[in-house]
Design goal:
This protein has about 375 residues and is α/β, with parallel strands linked by helices. The chain has two domains: about 5-220 and about 365-370, HUPs (Rossmann fold, 3-Layer(aba) Sandwich), CATH 3.40.50; about 255-355, Uridine Diphospho-n-acetylenolpyruvylglucosamine Reductase, domain 3. The chain is built from 13 helices and twelve strands. It has a six-stranded mixed sheet, sandwiched between helices. Strands 7, 8, 9, 10, 11 and 12 form a six-stranded mixed sheet that branches. A hairpin with a 3-residue loop joins strand 8 and strand 9. The relative contact order is 0.14.
Amino acid sequence: MGPSPAVAEIRNAVRECLDGIAPGTLVLAACSGGADSLALAAAVAFTAPRAGLRAGGITVDHGLQPGSSRRAAQVAVLLKELGLDPVECVAVTVPQNGGREERGGHGGPEAAARAARYAAIGAAARRAGAAAVLLGHTLDDQAETVLLGLARGSGGRSLAGMPASHGLYRRPLLSVRRATTRAACAALGLQPWDDPHNTDPRYTRARVRHQVMPVLEAALGPGVAEALARTAALLRADAEHLDGLAELAAARARGDSGMLGAGALAGMPQAIRTRVLRDAAVAAGCPPGSLTACHVWQLEKLVNRWHGQRWVDLPGGVRALRRDGVLQFAGAAAGAPGGVAGAGGAAGMGGVAGAGGQQETAEGAEGAKNAEGAEGSRGRE
């Protein structure tokens, strides 16, 4: 007798995700012990070897709850029992910042845990020589991400949700419902761990999951999650194309000076200019998950509504200003107070950097930009 429908669906999704990876290559499954990532890990352990791949696992201990180290060690043992090798258990330190979220769900413990998690996963993947890390985000996670983006008044990039593949990271379960991962765990005799943070109303995503989505389903009928995820898929291609155009436009605008001139920015279509401004702010040190459309609009005023106004304060201690017809960013990525980043690079103390400046290198930055839907405190992916 073959596997249960739930197990088969997840294995098929993983098999499709692994297609194209060179035989003999190592892939890692990120797992916290929750139902989604546990079902994913079991599918990777089954499917990867049959595709000629080596399969390993990684779990992250955020240290946010009593007994978290013991629980992470148990998850690591379970991953080995599933047949994954190598398996690494990584402990990280998450800045607490008072344990509160900013309004709208930006920042706070969720964002801090997410950044620490992706940095740890990326470092572990490099140590192991892995070609890909598989994450357990489901269709329900994608729907929640789109809904959060709508509530924040975010642009197309946020509404496009999480990409199925970006750099090191792959998300094979974005078409799979959360109920399916639970059914798969039950069919395989696996006991997932339910993180209490996932039902804690202090966290925005928990409120969306347990309060908002049920109300929408009751009022609008079934299929809301699927519709939201479909919206993300429709917007993803558009957003990626515009992002590519923005990169080209930014490179042309910088020219030999490496700086973003206000005149060149003013000549860009708004959809391109806002992306160029956002990317420059992120490169200067703004946390991507905390940079909102309102912040970008303020940057726009430095370009097309310039009347000699002062600087714009941005998340992460970054400050943007217009000087001598050039937009400059000073703060976190500038290395020290007084450092200024221009086109998106980083400068040392008192220095100025443009296109050739130091870029972010940690996978944590990539994860924060492209995976805002990841659970913050739980750390399953």
